[in-house]
Amino acid sequence: MKFSILMAAGIPLVSPLMAAGVKSGHAEAELLVNTAGYKPGQPLTLGIQLKVEQGWHSYWVNPGVGGMPLKVTWTLPEGWQAEELRQPIPKRFMTGDLPGFGYEGTALFLANVTPPASAQGEVELKAKVSWLTCNDSACVPGDAELSVKLPVGEGKPGGDVAAIFQAEKKVPVKMEGAELIVEEAGDTLTLRVIAPNTFNLQGSTVFPATPEVVDPAAPIVFKRAKTEWIATVKKNEYAEGSPALLDIVLFGGMLEKPYIVSWQAKK
Amino acid sequence: MKQNTFLGAVIGAMICSATAWAAEPGDAAPAFTVKNVKGEEVTLAKQKGKVVVLEWVNYECPFVKKHYGSGNLPKLQEKYTGKDVVWITVASGAEGEQGYLPAGELAARSEKEGNKASEIVLDTDGKVGKAYGAKTTPQLIVIDKEGKVAYNGAIDSKATTEAADIASADSYISAALDSVLAGKTVDKAKTQPYGCGVKYAK
Q1: CB < 8 Å to B198, chain A
Q2: Is A155 left (phi over 0), alpha (psi -120 to 50) or beta?
Q3: What is the DSSP string of A189-230?
Q4: CA B51 to CA B29: how far, in whole Å?
Q5: A139 in contact with chain B, both atoms CB, cutoff 8 A
Q6: For FRET with A22, which of A107, A108, A136, B200 sits at 20 to 30 Å CA-CA?
Q7: Residue A15: which pLDDT band, with cuts at 50, 70 and 90?
Protein backbone atom coordinates (compact mmCIF):
# COMPACT_ATOMS: atom_id res chain seq x y z
CA MET A 1 0.00 0.00 0.00
CA LYS A 2 2.67 2.45 1.09
CA PHE A 3 4.69 1.31 -1.85
CA SER A 4 2.03 2.26 -4.35
CA ILE A 5 1.62 5.71 -2.79
CA LEU A 6 5.33 6.22 -3.15
CA MET A 7 5.16 5.11 -6.76
CA ALA A 8 2.33 7.54 -7.46
CA ALA A 9 4.23 10.35 -5.80
CA GLY A 10 7.16 9.57 -8.05
CA ILE A 11 5.27 10.15 -11.27
CA PRO A 12 5.43 13.97 -11.39
CA LEU A 13 9.20 13.72 -11.14
CA VAL A 14 9.33 12.19 -14.63
CA SER A 15 10.40 14.79 -17.17
CA PRO A 16 7.48 16.08 -19.24
CA LEU A 17 9.52 15.20 -22.33
CA MET A 18 9.17 11.52 -21.58
CA ALA A 19 6.50 10.34 -23.95
CA ALA A 20 4.84 7.10 -23.00
CA GLY A 21 4.02 4.26 -25.30
CA VAL A 22 0.37 3.66 -26.16
CA LYS A 23 -0.75 0.05 -26.45
CA SER A 24 -3.41 -0.84 -28.98
CA GLY A 25 -4.20 -4.19 -30.55
CA HIS A 26 -0.95 -6.15 -30.68
CA ALA A 27 1.52 -3.27 -30.74
CA GLU A 28 2.68 -0.27 -28.75
CA ALA A 29 3.39 3.10 -30.37
CA GLU A 30 5.50 5.92 -29.04
CA LEU A 31 6.51 9.34 -30.36
CA LEU A 32 10.25 10.06 -30.10
CA VAL A 33 12.16 13.27 -30.78
CA ASN A 34 15.87 13.75 -31.38
CA THR A 35 16.29 16.90 -29.31
CA ALA A 36 15.37 18.34 -25.91
CA GLY A 37 14.35 21.68 -27.40
CA TYR A 38 13.74 23.23 -30.80
CA LYS A 39 15.36 26.12 -32.62
CA PRO A 40 13.06 28.28 -34.78
CA GLY A 41 13.69 27.56 -38.47
CA GLN A 42 15.87 24.49 -37.75
CA PRO A 43 14.59 21.02 -38.71
CA LEU A 44 14.37 18.26 -36.11
CA THR A 45 13.53 14.58 -36.42
CA LEU A 46 10.48 12.88 -34.97
CA GLY A 47 10.21 9.11 -34.73
CA ILE A 48 7.16 6.88 -34.56
CA GLN A 49 8.29 3.76 -32.74
CA LEU A 50 6.10 0.71 -33.18
CA LYS A 51 6.78 -2.29 -30.97
CA VAL A 52 4.94 -5.30 -32.33
CA GLU A 53 4.14 -8.22 -30.04
CA GLN A 54 5.96 -11.49 -30.56
CA GLY A 55 4.24 -13.64 -33.19
CA TRP A 56 2.67 -10.68 -35.06
CA HIS A 57 3.89 -8.40 -37.83
CA SER A 58 3.03 -4.93 -39.14
CA TYR A 59 3.40 -3.66 -42.71
CA TRP A 60 5.71 -1.63 -44.95
CA VAL A 61 4.76 1.08 -47.47
CA ASN A 62 4.38 -1.81 -49.96
CA PRO A 63 2.43 -4.25 -47.79
CA GLY A 64 2.22 -6.93 -50.47
CA VAL A 65 -1.14 -8.71 -50.51
CA GLY A 66 -3.67 -8.14 -47.77
CA GLY A 67 -1.75 -5.87 -45.40
CA MET A 68 -1.93 -2.17 -44.65
CA PRO A 69 0.88 0.36 -44.29
CA LEU A 70 1.23 2.41 -41.11
CA LYS A 71 -0.51 5.78 -41.42
CA VAL A 72 0.46 8.95 -39.59
CA THR A 73 -1.47 12.21 -39.44
CA TRP A 74 0.49 15.04 -37.82
CA THR A 75 -1.07 17.87 -35.87
CA LEU A 76 1.62 20.52 -35.59
CA PRO A 77 1.52 24.15 -34.47
CA GLU A 78 0.90 26.94 -36.98
CA GLY A 79 3.61 27.12 -39.65
CA TRP A 80 5.39 23.84 -38.75
CA GLN A 81 6.09 21.63 -41.77
CA ALA A 82 6.38 17.83 -41.71
CA GLU A 83 8.18 15.94 -44.46
CA GLU A 84 7.25 12.50 -45.73
CA LEU A 85 7.50 9.58 -43.32
CA ARG A 86 10.67 7.57 -43.92
CA GLN A 87 10.20 3.83 -43.45
CA PRO A 88 12.94 1.44 -42.34
CA ILE A 89 13.83 -1.56 -44.50
CA PRO A 90 11.31 -4.37 -43.98
CA LYS A 91 11.35 -8.15 -43.85
CA ARG A 92 9.66 -10.41 -46.34
CA PHE A 93 7.09 -12.86 -44.91
CA MET A 94 4.03 -14.92 -45.72
CA THR A 95 0.74 -14.43 -43.88
CA GLY A 96 -0.94 -17.74 -44.59
CA ASP A 97 -0.88 -17.82 -48.41
CA LEU A 98 -0.34 -14.08 -48.82
CA PRO A 99 3.13 -12.67 -49.54
CA GLY A 100 3.98 -9.40 -47.82
CA PHE A 101 6.59 -7.00 -46.48
CA GLY A 102 6.78 -5.49 -43.03
CA TYR A 103 8.14 -5.60 -39.52
CA GLU A 104 8.49 -7.91 -36.57
CA GLY A 105 9.59 -6.56 -33.20
CA THR A 106 10.45 -2.85 -33.12
CA ALA A 107 10.38 -0.52 -36.14
CA LEU A 108 11.16 3.18 -36.01
CA PHE A 109 9.66 5.45 -38.69
CA LEU A 110 11.19 8.90 -39.10
CA ALA A 111 9.98 12.30 -40.25
CA ASN A 112 11.76 15.63 -40.36
CA VAL A 113 9.74 18.58 -39.15
CA THR A 114 10.70 22.23 -39.41
CA PRO A 115 9.38 24.99 -37.16
CA PRO A 116 8.88 28.41 -38.74
CA ALA A 117 11.45 31.11 -37.99
CA SER A 118 8.74 32.89 -35.98
CA ALA A 119 8.08 29.90 -33.68
CA GLN A 120 8.18 30.63 -29.97
CA GLY A 121 7.53 29.04 -26.58
CA GLU A 122 6.79 25.45 -25.67
CA VAL A 123 4.89 23.53 -28.33
CA GLU A 124 2.99 20.26 -28.46
CA LEU A 125 3.60 18.02 -31.47
CA LYS A 126 0.91 15.42 -32.08
CA ALA A 127 0.65 12.34 -34.25
CA LYS A 128 -2.39 10.18 -34.90
CA VAL A 129 -1.08 6.76 -35.91
CA SER A 130 -2.94 3.73 -37.23
CA TRP A 131 -1.55 0.36 -38.24
CA LEU A 132 -2.44 -3.26 -38.85
CA THR A 133 -0.85 -6.31 -37.27
CA CYS A 134 -1.45 -9.80 -38.59
CA ASN A 135 -0.35 -13.36 -37.96
CA ASP A 136 -1.44 -16.52 -39.75
CA SER A 137 -4.76 -16.67 -37.97
CA ALA A 138 -5.92 -13.09 -37.56
CA CYS A 139 -5.45 -9.40 -38.34
CA VAL A 140 -5.94 -6.76 -35.65
CA PRO A 141 -5.75 -3.02 -36.28
CA GLY A 142 -4.34 -0.57 -33.76
CA ASP A 143 -4.32 3.19 -33.38
CA ALA A 144 -2.86 5.73 -31.02
CA GLU A 145 -2.84 9.47 -30.44
CA LEU A 146 0.69 10.41 -29.48
CA SER A 147 2.14 13.71 -28.40
CA VAL A 148 5.32 15.25 -27.17
CA LYS A 149 5.92 18.67 -25.60
CA LEU A 150 9.02 20.53 -26.71
CA PRO A 151 10.39 23.77 -25.26
CA VAL A 152 12.18 26.32 -27.35
CA GLY A 153 15.87 26.29 -26.53
CA GLU A 154 19.33 25.09 -27.25
CA GLY A 155 18.28 21.79 -28.75
CA LYS A 156 20.58 19.65 -26.68
CA PRO A 157 20.51 15.95 -27.56
CA GLY A 158 17.54 14.45 -25.78
CA GLY A 159 16.82 10.98 -24.49
CA ASP A 160 15.72 9.62 -27.87
CA VAL A 161 18.66 10.90 -29.87
CA ALA A 162 20.51 7.57 -29.85
CA ALA A 163 17.45 5.59 -30.92
CA ILE A 164 16.76 7.97 -33.80
CA PHE A 165 20.43 8.01 -34.81
CA GLN A 166 20.40 4.19 -34.98
CA ALA A 167 17.08 4.21 -36.84
CA GLU A 168 18.52 6.45 -39.56
CA LYS A 169 20.86 3.59 -40.49
CA LYS A 170 17.87 1.39 -41.36
CA VAL A 171 16.20 3.98 -43.59
CA PRO A 172 17.21 3.80 -47.28
CA VAL A 173 19.04 6.78 -48.74
CA LYS A 174 19.18 7.75 -52.41
CA MET A 175 21.86 5.81 -54.31
CA GLU A 176 23.73 8.83 -55.65
CA GLY A 177 24.66 8.63 -59.33
CA ALA A 178 22.69 5.40 -59.89
CA GLU A 179 19.93 4.97 -62.42
CA LEU A 180 17.14 2.39 -62.59
CA ILE A 181 15.57 1.39 -65.90
CA VAL A 182 12.49 -0.86 -66.10
CA GLU A 183 11.65 -2.75 -69.30
CA GLU A 184 8.51 -4.76 -69.82
CA ALA A 185 8.09 -7.91 -71.92
CA GLY A 186 4.80 -9.72 -71.42
CA ASP A 187 4.51 -10.51 -67.74
CA THR A 188 8.24 -10.13 -67.09
CA LEU A 189 9.97 -6.95 -65.99
CA THR A 190 13.68 -6.44 -66.51
CA LEU A 191 15.25 -4.12 -63.97
CA ARG A 192 18.57 -2.53 -64.92
CA VAL A 193 20.65 -0.56 -62.45
CA ILE A 194 23.47 1.52 -63.83
CA ALA A 195 25.51 2.52 -60.79
CA PRO A 196 28.96 3.91 -60.01
CA ASN A 197 31.60 1.26 -59.20
CA THR A 198 31.36 2.15 -55.52
CA PHE A 199 28.08 0.22 -55.36
CA ASN A 200 28.29 -3.55 -55.49
CA LEU A 201 24.81 -5.09 -55.74
CA GLN A 202 26.09 -8.68 -55.47
CA GLY A 203 24.10 -10.59 -52.88
CA SER A 204 21.97 -7.62 -51.85
CA THR A 205 18.34 -8.01 -50.77
CA VAL A 206 16.01 -6.07 -53.05
CA PHE A 207 12.38 -5.19 -52.37
CA PRO A 208 9.87 -3.22 -54.47
CA ALA A 209 8.69 -0.18 -52.47
CA THR A 210 6.01 0.69 -55.01
CA PRO A 211 2.93 -1.54 -54.62
CA GLU A 212 1.32 -3.46 -57.49
CA VAL A 213 4.21 -3.29 -59.96
CA VAL A 214 6.31 -6.36 -59.10
CA ASP A 215 4.92 -9.72 -57.94
CA PRO A 216 5.40 -9.46 -54.17
CA ALA A 217 6.34 -13.15 -53.92
CA ALA A 218 9.08 -12.92 -56.56
CA PRO A 219 12.70 -12.58 -55.43
CA ILE A 220 14.74 -9.85 -57.13
CA VAL A 221 18.35 -10.90 -57.73
CA PHE A 222 20.74 -8.51 -59.49
CA LYS A 223 23.50 -10.03 -61.60
CA ARG A 224 26.41 -8.07 -63.01
CA ALA A 225 26.35 -7.65 -66.78
CA LYS A 226 29.34 -5.66 -68.03
CA THR A 227 28.65 -2.10 -66.91
CA GLU A 228 25.30 -2.63 -65.24
CA TRP A 229 23.25 -4.84 -62.93
CA ILE A 230 20.27 -6.81 -64.27
CA ALA A 231 17.38 -8.61 -62.59
CA THR A 232 14.31 -10.13 -64.17
CA VAL A 233 11.16 -10.37 -62.12
CA LYS A 234 7.54 -11.34 -62.61
CA LYS A 235 5.16 -8.45 -63.09
CA ASN A 236 2.44 -8.03 -60.46
CA GLU A 237 -0.74 -9.69 -61.70
CA TYR A 238 -2.71 -6.59 -60.66
CA ALA A 239 -0.44 -4.12 -62.45
CA GLU A 240 -2.65 -1.95 -64.63
CA GLY A 241 -1.13 -1.74 -68.08
CA SER A 242 2.53 -0.79 -68.20
CA PRO A 243 4.23 0.31 -65.00
CA ALA A 244 4.77 4.06 -64.71
CA LEU A 245 7.09 4.19 -61.74
CA LEU A 246 9.05 1.93 -59.44
CA ASP A 247 11.13 2.52 -56.33
CA ILE A 248 13.32 -0.33 -55.15
CA VAL A 249 15.21 -0.59 -51.89
CA LEU A 250 18.48 -2.51 -51.71
CA PHE A 251 20.42 -3.54 -48.64
CA GLY A 252 22.78 -6.17 -47.27
CA GLY A 253 25.32 -8.11 -49.29
CA MET A 254 28.19 -5.78 -50.19
CA LEU A 255 26.23 -2.57 -49.57
CA GLU A 256 27.29 -0.52 -46.56
CA LYS A 257 23.77 0.81 -45.91
CA PRO A 258 20.26 0.60 -47.38
CA TYR A 259 19.67 2.47 -50.61
CA ILE A 260 16.70 3.45 -52.74
CA VAL A 261 16.70 3.82 -56.53
CA SER A 262 13.76 5.22 -58.46
CA TRP A 263 12.48 4.88 -61.99
CA GLN A 264 9.79 6.80 -63.79
CA ALA A 265 8.51 5.99 -67.27
CA LYS A 266 9.34 8.64 -69.81
CA LYS A 267 6.23 10.54 -70.78
CA MET B 1 6.74 -46.79 -66.78
CA LYS B 2 8.88 -44.20 -65.10
CA GLN B 3 8.26 -41.91 -67.98
CA ASN B 4 4.54 -42.38 -67.52
CA THR B 5 4.63 -41.32 -63.91
CA PHE B 6 6.74 -38.35 -64.88
CA LEU B 7 4.27 -37.36 -67.58
CA GLY B 8 1.41 -37.86 -65.17
CA ALA B 9 3.10 -35.56 -62.72
CA VAL B 10 3.69 -32.93 -65.37
CA ILE B 11 0.11 -33.10 -66.59
CA GLY B 12 -1.08 -33.03 -62.98
CA ALA B 13 1.00 -29.95 -62.32
CA MET B 14 -0.36 -28.32 -65.45
CA ILE B 15 -3.92 -28.99 -64.37
CA CYS B 16 -3.17 -27.62 -60.92
CA SER B 17 -1.70 -24.41 -62.23
CA ALA B 18 -4.56 -24.04 -64.68
CA THR B 19 -7.12 -24.28 -61.91
CA ALA B 20 -5.25 -22.14 -59.40
CA TRP B 21 -6.67 -19.02 -61.04
CA ALA B 22 -9.74 -20.02 -62.93
CA ALA B 23 -11.60 -16.79 -62.36
CA GLU B 24 -9.87 -14.28 -64.57
CA PRO B 25 -12.29 -11.77 -66.08
CA GLY B 26 -13.70 -13.30 -69.27
CA ASP B 27 -13.37 -16.89 -67.99
CA ALA B 28 -16.40 -19.09 -67.55
CA ALA B 29 -17.25 -18.96 -63.85
CA PRO B 30 -16.45 -22.33 -62.19
CA ALA B 31 -19.59 -24.31 -61.37
CA PHE B 32 -20.34 -24.99 -57.72
CA THR B 33 -22.90 -26.53 -55.43
CA VAL B 34 -22.84 -25.52 -51.76
CA LYS B 35 -25.22 -25.42 -48.81
CA ASN B 36 -26.61 -22.19 -47.44
CA VAL B 37 -27.02 -21.50 -43.72
CA LYS B 38 -30.51 -23.08 -43.82
CA GLY B 39 -29.01 -26.30 -45.19
CA GLU B 40 -30.48 -25.81 -48.69
CA GLU B 41 -28.45 -26.42 -51.82
CA VAL B 42 -27.28 -23.41 -53.81
CA THR B 43 -25.87 -23.99 -57.30
CA LEU B 44 -24.42 -21.55 -59.77
CA ALA B 45 -26.10 -23.35 -62.66
CA LYS B 46 -29.53 -22.37 -61.32
CA GLN B 47 -28.63 -18.65 -61.47
CA LYS B 48 -28.12 -18.66 -65.26
CA GLY B 49 -29.56 -15.53 -66.82
CA LYS B 50 -28.97 -13.50 -63.68
CA VAL B 51 -26.05 -11.38 -62.55
CA VAL B 52 -24.35 -13.04 -59.56
CA VAL B 53 -22.07 -11.56 -56.91
CA LEU B 54 -19.81 -13.71 -54.74
CA GLU B 55 -18.60 -11.94 -51.61
CA TRP B 56 -16.07 -13.58 -49.27
CA VAL B 57 -16.70 -12.96 -45.59
CA ASN B 58 -15.10 -13.36 -42.16
CA TYR B 59 -16.89 -11.14 -39.64
CA GLU B 60 -13.81 -11.13 -37.37
CA CYS B 61 -11.60 -9.50 -40.01
CA PRO B 62 -11.13 -5.73 -39.48
CA PHE B 63 -11.49 -5.04 -43.22
CA VAL B 64 -14.84 -6.86 -43.21
CA LYS B 65 -15.88 -5.02 -40.03
CA LYS B 66 -15.19 -1.76 -41.87
CA HIS B 67 -17.75 -2.56 -44.55
CA TYR B 68 -20.41 -4.10 -42.29
CA GLY B 69 -19.98 -1.78 -39.32
CA SER B 70 -20.43 1.23 -41.60
CA GLY B 71 -23.42 -0.37 -43.32
CA ASN B 72 -21.63 -0.19 -46.68
CA LEU B 73 -21.95 -3.87 -47.64
CA PRO B 74 -25.57 -4.22 -46.43
CA LYS B 75 -26.45 -1.10 -48.46
CA LEU B 76 -24.79 -2.54 -51.58
CA GLN B 77 -26.49 -5.91 -51.03
CA GLU B 78 -29.88 -4.24 -50.66
CA LYS B 79 -29.40 -1.98 -53.67
CA TYR B 80 -28.30 -4.66 -56.11
CA THR B 81 -30.56 -7.51 -54.95
CA GLY B 82 -33.29 -4.92 -55.60
CA LYS B 83 -32.04 -4.90 -59.21
CA ASP B 84 -32.42 -8.68 -59.47
CA VAL B 85 -28.77 -9.45 -58.76
CA VAL B 86 -28.18 -12.71 -56.86
CA TRP B 87 -25.77 -11.79 -54.06
CA ILE B 88 -24.04 -14.75 -52.41
CA THR B 89 -21.99 -14.24 -49.25
CA VAL B 90 -19.41 -17.02 -49.01
CA ALA B 91 -17.69 -18.21 -45.83
CA SER B 92 -14.63 -20.25 -46.90
CA GLY B 93 -12.96 -20.35 -43.50
CA ALA B 94 -12.09 -23.82 -42.24
CA GLU B 95 -13.48 -25.14 -38.97
CA GLY B 96 -11.30 -24.07 -36.05
CA GLU B 97 -9.97 -21.03 -37.94
CA GLN B 98 -10.67 -17.46 -36.85
CA GLY B 99 -14.15 -16.33 -37.89
CA TYR B 100 -15.48 -19.83 -38.60
CA LEU B 101 -19.08 -20.27 -37.53
CA PRO B 102 -21.35 -23.29 -37.99
CA ALA B 103 -24.46 -22.69 -40.15
CA GLY B 104 -26.86 -21.59 -37.40
CA GLU B 105 -24.40 -19.19 -35.80
CA LEU B 106 -23.33 -17.80 -39.17
CA ALA B 107 -26.99 -17.07 -39.97
CA ALA B 108 -27.49 -15.30 -36.63
CA ARG B 109 -24.25 -13.33 -36.96
CA SER B 110 -25.10 -12.31 -40.54
CA GLU B 111 -28.46 -11.02 -39.39
CA LYS B 112 -26.83 -9.08 -36.56
CA GLU B 113 -24.37 -7.53 -39.06
CA GLY B 114 -27.28 -6.44 -41.25
CA ASN B 115 -26.34 -8.77 -44.12
CA LYS B 116 -28.92 -8.42 -46.92
CA ALA B 117 -27.45 -11.00 -49.33
CA SER B 118 -29.71 -13.38 -51.28
CA GLU B 119 -27.77 -16.33 -49.90
CA ILE B 120 -25.20 -16.95 -47.19
CA VAL B 121 -23.30 -20.14 -47.96
CA LEU B 122 -20.71 -22.31 -46.24
CA ASP B 123 -17.63 -23.37 -48.17
CA THR B 124 -15.82 -24.90 -45.21
CA ASP B 125 -13.63 -27.14 -47.37
CA GLY B 126 -12.61 -24.07 -49.40
CA LYS B 127 -13.43 -25.63 -52.78
CA VAL B 128 -15.38 -22.66 -54.09
CA GLY B 129 -12.91 -20.14 -52.71
CA LYS B 130 -9.98 -21.94 -54.33
CA ALA B 131 -11.80 -22.43 -57.64
CA TYR B 132 -12.30 -18.68 -57.80
CA GLY B 133 -8.87 -17.83 -56.38
CA ALA B 134 -10.40 -15.92 -53.47
CA LYS B 135 -7.49 -14.55 -51.44
CA THR B 136 -8.98 -12.09 -49.00
CA THR B 137 -12.04 -11.15 -46.98
CA PRO B 138 -13.65 -9.15 -48.36
CA GLN B 139 -13.19 -10.06 -52.03
CA LEU B 140 -15.85 -9.63 -54.68
CA ILE B 141 -16.55 -11.46 -57.90
CA VAL B 142 -19.22 -10.51 -60.41
CA ILE B 143 -20.57 -13.13 -62.82
CA ASP B 144 -22.57 -11.88 -65.80
CA LYS B 145 -25.82 -13.31 -67.17
CA GLU B 146 -23.88 -15.59 -69.53
CA GLY B 147 -21.98 -17.14 -66.63
CA LYS B 148 -18.68 -15.39 -67.31
CA VAL B 149 -16.51 -13.68 -64.70
CA ALA B 150 -16.92 -9.93 -65.23
CA TYR B 151 -15.08 -8.62 -62.16
CA ASN B 152 -12.68 -10.08 -59.60
CA GLY B 153 -11.04 -8.06 -56.88
CA ALA B 154 -11.40 -5.45 -54.17
CA ILE B 155 -14.62 -3.89 -52.95
CA ASP B 156 -13.18 -0.40 -53.46
CA SER B 157 -9.97 1.55 -54.03
CA LYS B 158 -8.92 2.32 -50.45
CA ALA B 159 -7.15 -0.62 -48.83
CA THR B 160 -7.60 0.44 -45.22
CA THR B 161 -9.52 -0.67 -42.15
CA GLU B 162 -11.01 2.78 -41.59
CA ALA B 163 -14.70 3.26 -42.36
CA ALA B 164 -14.06 6.98 -42.91
CA ASP B 165 -12.27 6.07 -46.17
CA ILE B 166 -15.35 4.51 -47.79
CA ALA B 167 -16.96 7.80 -48.85
CA SER B 168 -13.93 8.98 -50.84
CA ALA B 169 -13.04 5.56 -52.32
CA ASP B 170 -13.94 4.40 -55.84
CA SER B 171 -16.47 1.63 -55.34
CA TYR B 172 -15.12 -0.96 -57.79
CA ILE B 173 -18.01 -3.32 -57.06
CA SER B 174 -20.67 -0.68 -57.81
CA ALA B 175 -18.92 0.33 -61.05
CA ALA B 176 -18.64 -3.33 -62.09
CA LEU B 177 -22.28 -4.12 -61.31
CA ASP B 178 -23.58 -0.97 -62.98
CA SER B 179 -21.60 -1.83 -66.14
CA VAL B 180 -22.71 -5.47 -66.20
CA LEU B 181 -26.37 -4.55 -65.57
CA ALA B 182 -26.14 -2.04 -68.45
CA GLY B 183 -24.69 -4.77 -70.70
CA LYS B 184 -21.29 -3.04 -70.90
CA THR B 185 -17.85 -4.45 -70.23
CA VAL B 186 -16.30 -3.57 -66.90
CA ASP B 187 -13.64 -0.89 -67.12
CA LYS B 188 -11.57 -2.18 -64.15
CA ALA B 189 -12.27 -5.92 -64.33
CA LYS B 190 -9.40 -7.05 -62.11
CA THR B 191 -8.04 -5.29 -59.05
CA GLN B 192 -5.89 -6.41 -56.14
CA PRO B 193 -8.26 -7.52 -53.39
CA TYR B 194 -7.55 -6.19 -49.93
CA GLY B 195 -8.38 -7.66 -46.56
CA CYS B 196 -7.38 -10.57 -44.35
CA GLY B 197 -6.32 -13.82 -45.95
CA VAL B 198 -9.13 -16.33 -46.43
CA LYS B 199 -8.60 -18.88 -43.63
CA TYR B 200 -8.48 -22.02 -45.77
CA ALA B 201 -7.87 -25.41 -44.16
CA LYS B 202 -4.10 -25.78 -43.71
Answers
A1: 96
A2: left
A3: EEEEEE--TT---TT-EEEE-STTTB-TTS----EEETTEEE
A4: 12
A5: yes
A6: A136
A7: very low
